[in-house]
Amino acid sequence: MNADHDNNNEFVYDTLKLLQLLESISTTTESTNLQSKINLYLKDLLSVEYVLIVPLLPTSEETQEGLIQVVNDNVLEKEFRFSVNTSDIENSSCESNDHPFKVTDLNKSFSEVIEMVVGKEHNTLIFDVKGSNSHQSIKSSNALFVCIAGDSSQREKFEFYVQHTFRYVLGHLLTAFELYEEKRVRFQCQNLLQVARRLLSKIGDLGQLLRGVMAEARELAKAERCSLFLIDKDTGELVSKVFDGTAITQQIKQSKEVRISGTQGIAGHVAQTGKLLNIHNAYHHPLFYKGIDEQTGFKTRNILCFPICDEERVIGVAQLCNKIDGFHFDKCDEETATAFSVYCGISIMHSLVHKRVQKAEARYKLSQELLLYHMKVPELDVANCLNRSTLATVIENFPNFESFDFCPRDVDDHSSVYLCIKMFMDLNFIVDFKMPEEKLARFVMLVQKGYRNMPYHNWQHAFSVTHFSYACMKNLKLIERGIITKLQGLSFLISCLCHDLDHRGFNNSYMTQSGSMLARLYSSEGSINERHHLSQAICILNDPGSKILDSLSTENFMESIDILRELILATDLANHFRISKDLKKLNPDNIQNHQRMLLSLLITCCDLNDQIKKWTTVYRVAELVYTEFFTQGDLEKQMGMSPNLMFDRKKANVPALQIEFLDAVVKPTYEIFVQIFPETSQFLETITENRQHWVEIKEKEETCCKNGNSC
């Protein structure tokens, strides 16, 4: 036997066995394995019935958490965690004069755990082992306790061997405990992420989500029951609409909700302070209300109550009762609850927002249904519209309909519907796309009803724009020459018909500055009016009675809607100017490679087609446009805003503004058009002629002003 003597002590220790212990523990950092080896070494060395190690894990300045995982070499199925007051440890250590003290010298929770683990029949001596400063996680000088079942008369011997052994193994053991805690926290995080995934899958139903929160909370903390309350913002009360399946009264089961004061009791205290509350003995706590236990027969032993918060405030409180496999909820449960509450808050807020969105969608859908109901087209009107003899008569009244020179503004609203159907027929879209004629008639009439009675942005404008697209396809043979496809042609015609649906007579700038409902919906995306027109168009296209694209394949339908979106948004001149440099590069040789860009140019030309008509039409349209502009300007003045010059009826010089409009917008756009289609060069001549008319009016007004006459 290789034995050594301590110079100041009568006890002898076996160096070889100690070296063998150090060798055996050097290959592992697993805390339970280390404890098993050290426990058995001390058990054999001291000839005692049991040895267990209780590391002290820091939780705060005042308390630490004791951890029991192994007795001798038996790893417990469930580890025990319990609070240990730092002052109690220090006092007990001082009173014992560096000798072991009994379990009864420490706080009750410690003694209860020890007695539960090893029984009451043993005399348990406790030795405190001091930690070194190298372990930053240890906040007090006590690193751990070693509990030994032995005779008090042997305490000096036990003390010697315990301290001597831990002089060599303490650092390695403390490192193992730190690694164990890190692994536990990492596992906890992974577990919480799985919980978060499950909770987020339930945000569509708040009741289901809250039941999921309670179930997850019970499982995470191993609690017998859970209560969950949300704060009523109006009353400040705590409200529960879902209930735990255990220990609730028949009265609660039958009620739809339970309300309690937001300032009273444990839940009220947590709601007010926003701080977690861990109560080890519920009946000894002044905030605990015993009445529920008396009514239900349920015995509340301990409580963990934690707040659920959003970004700004407490929105709810969760209350867990009775730790299943422990004396009370421990520090680990507190950490889990704190992290879990974050996911709860996120999930609940998303669910509430989701619910509001669902309600908004339902209201929107209802309003759309109501709108379509009032826009309902009588079946008799549909039948009349499809009457071949009536259609033929209307067509005969407008013999020059296919020409670019034709003026759509001379057509009455009734006849315009028949002529729209003629466009679809002439371009063979009804046959090619298997379009039911009654749906087409209903579609055209619904679109007509969708335009408001504005001075300029009305059905007459839509019909005029649509006619120009028809004239382009007929006269320039865009489809026959393969410049655009049939599907693109159909989408082009529909886009023109719908491009200003439900226009309110105000531009995008006014919509934003006035804080309109449309701006709230679309301002983040830009092109507020155009996005609304698109939305209305899709709404009509989705109405069962006017689904003219129903026969398209899914792929073709998606392409058609995509073109519809692009072209309606292209009618926003801001978008036109954004791509003007690319548009100028278009020519007869490359347009087939840039079909979408060509279509964007075409719909802008369609939107401006009034400017290539005869002078009487140009002048009449200008009056309509400025009627709308000045109405907007008047409203802007009422709002304390300074309107743009062209919207100010007192400052606007209409001839000068029209000349500027022709020079900056109309002429450059049609120059590109003529560059691609030289056969339309007369458009530029007409623009020049109309510009000259505005110049003459401008000069006449200036002469009148110089002569002192009214301008």
Describe, in plain words, how this protein is organized in 3D.
The protein has 711 residues and is an alpha+beta fold. It folds into three domains: 3-185, GAF domain (Beta-Lactamase, 2-Layer Sandwich), CATH 3.30.450.40; 206-355, 2-Layer Sandwich (Beta-Lactamase), CATH 3.30.450.40; 379-704, Catalytic domain of cyclic nucleotide phosphodiesterase 4b2b (Orthogonal Bundle). The chain is built from 27 helices and 14 strands. A six-stranded antiparallel β-sheet has the order 5-4-3-8-7-6, sandwiched between helices. A hairpin with a 6-residue loop joins strand 9 (223-231) and strand 10 (238-240). The longest helix has 46 residues, at 155-200. It is elongated. The N and C termini lie far apart (126 Å). 36% of the residues are buried. Residues 92-97, 134-140 and 246-252 have low confidence and may be disordered.
What is the CA-atom radius of gyration, in angstroms?
42 Å
Which sheet architecture does the biggest sheet show? 6 strands, antiparallel
CATH H-tier superfamily of the largest domain: 3'5'-cyclic nucleotide phosphodiesterase, catalytic domain
Number of domains: 3
Structural class: alpha+beta
Total strands: the figure is 14
CATH A-level architecture of the largest domain? Orthogonal Bundle
Mean pLDDT comes to: 86
From the N-terminal CA to the C-terminal CA, the straight-line distance is 126 Å
Cofactor: a divalent metal cation
Enzyme class: hydrolase
Domain PDEase: 383-701
Binding site for AMP: 457-461, 500, 607, 658
